[in-house]
Amino acid sequence: MKRIGLVLVSLSLVFLSVGCGGKSLNCSKTQSDQTMEYNLKFDKDDKIKSGTMTLVQKYDKDEVDEDEIDEFIDEMKEEAKENGMKLKVKKGKEKVTFTISFDADKVNEALGSSYDDNSTYDEIQDELKDSDFKCKK
To answer: The whole model's pTM is what?
Structure first.
């Protein structure tokens, strides 16, 4: 359950930073058994346009019940659908990969985030770097 909680917290970060068009920003962060990567797109005015977030969560199949993982995947699919986002899931023997695609206008709606479709490239890049993400343009 602890790992599932970590995944939920990590996925919520997805919606804090969104971003296509003129510029793109790719940021990633790896912590123990979890890797998150944002691919954000901005328009010609440096405003968020769209993005994807990929989360790879490794798990020890001896410590985590398969039914728990499946239940969590179903919950994430339902939440993404309710928020108008696309979620792809790839489940392996010892990891689950979530890829969420979203438009900027869904960020605030999903989390009540301080970001919205007017958030700029620099604001998001600074926030991600402050959260220990490594970013490249």
So the answer is: 0.74
